[in-house]
Amino acid sequence: MEDSVNPVVVGVDGTDNAIRAARWAAGVAHKLGAPLHIVHARPYLGHNPSDAIAAVRACEMSAQQERASAILDEAGQAVHGDHPNLRITTAHVSEAVDRLLVDLSQHAKLIVLGCDDLSVAAAVLIGSTTVAVAANSMCPVVAWRGGATALTGQPIVVGVDDDDPSRVAITSAFELADRFAVNIVAVHAWSTRRSAGDVTLPFMIDWNAVHADQRGHLVTALAPWTRQYPDVDVQYVVDQDKPSRALLHHSEDAQLVVIGSRGRGPMAGAVLGSTGLNLLHHSVIPTMICRSMSPHSSKSQFRTGVQ
């Protein structure tokens, strides 16, 4: 990790899912002109595990410790087969995987991990490696999902709101779309309900005009990025729906969905919010979480290196 070019980091645990995630991460690293750093560490224990869970995890840790070198070799060989010229480094660390990846995120372009099976309740009450890393990482985190082991020509979907996390997500999405040479689908969801008192807006409203106004705001909001990335075509989508449902619907034909998170907090589930947790639970494609508290949040995440 002494290379002047910050790496894409991927965590592997010996599963086929992790190998596929590593191959996908290698494709991203290739496009970003970055090395790939493959790591193996102790499993995440979750929030206050019971004695029974701790005992089972201890057995898993012992078995994985013995297989660590083989796990890293297998991942490295799979990646090398796809990208023989990509610089690849590996490391086996005895630290818990969530703490390791958060530490590495300080110098990484991107963290990628095969997303564990996740329910919203389990993420909040028990914990999840994916949620724990995404809630504390200093760089974007991709929860890899689906069967794709290589990048495609499909678009990148990004959720657009008026807050700082959304701006970080927009920046990341446009930079990746530019590097991948794909389009952006920018999704802004809005509701007929007001947040204060949950009051329904009157029915005697020209909803076509409201929709047009919302779309106009979306086009204006994205103007700084469309000027900066003139080669990236943008599809503007305004959807009268919940954000998570709108993003899931419009990501059906995409290769990546990108959203912002709220920042650091005591409960990972609260930090990511309902949209983030719902996407991690239901999305069938890789999902990128971008935190606004990153020290790089106001500048490019991916520009170092050559395409």
Tell me what you see in this structure:
The structure is a single chain. The protein is an alpha/beta fold and 307 residues long. The protein is built from ten helices and ten strands. It has helices at residues 16-32, 51-82, 97-104, 120-125, 129-136, 164-180, 207-221, 223-228, 243-250, 268-282, and strands at residues 8-11, 36-42, 88-96, 110-114, 141-144, 156-159, 184-190, 234-240, 256-261, 287-291. It has a ten-stranded mixed sheet, with helices on both faces. Strand 2 (36-42), helix 2 (51-82) and strand 3 (88-96) form a beta-alpha-beta unit. Helix 1 (16-32) crosses helix 2 (51-82).
Structural class: alpha/beta
* Main sheet: strands, sense, barrel: 10 strands, mixed
Strand content: 15-25%
Q: Mean pLDDT across all residues, rounded?
A: 81
Q: Count the helices. How many?
A: 10
pLDDT < 50 stretches: 119-127, 264-270, 294-298
- What Rg, in angstroms, do the CA atoms define? 20 Å
What does the oligomeric state look like here?
single chain
Spell the H/E element sequence.
Answer: EHEHEHEHHEEHEHHEHEHE
Q: What is the number of beta strands? A: 10
Distance between the termini: 20 Å
What share of residues is helical? 40-55%
Q: State the shape.
A: elongated
Tell me the strand order in the biggest sheet. 3-2-1-4-5-10-9-6-7-8
Features:
alpha/beta, 43% helix, single chain, 10 strands, elongated, 307 residues, ten-stranded mixed β-sheet
How are the secondary structure elements laid out?
Blueprint (H helix, E strand, L loop, with lengths): L7 E4 L4 H17 L3 E7 L8 H32 L5 E9 H8 L5 E5 L5 H6 L3 H8 L4 E4 L11 E4 L4 H17 L3 E7 L16 H15 L1 H6 L5 E7 L2 H8 L5 E6 L6 H15 L4 E5 L16
Helix pairs in contact: 1-2, 3-5, 5-10, 9-10
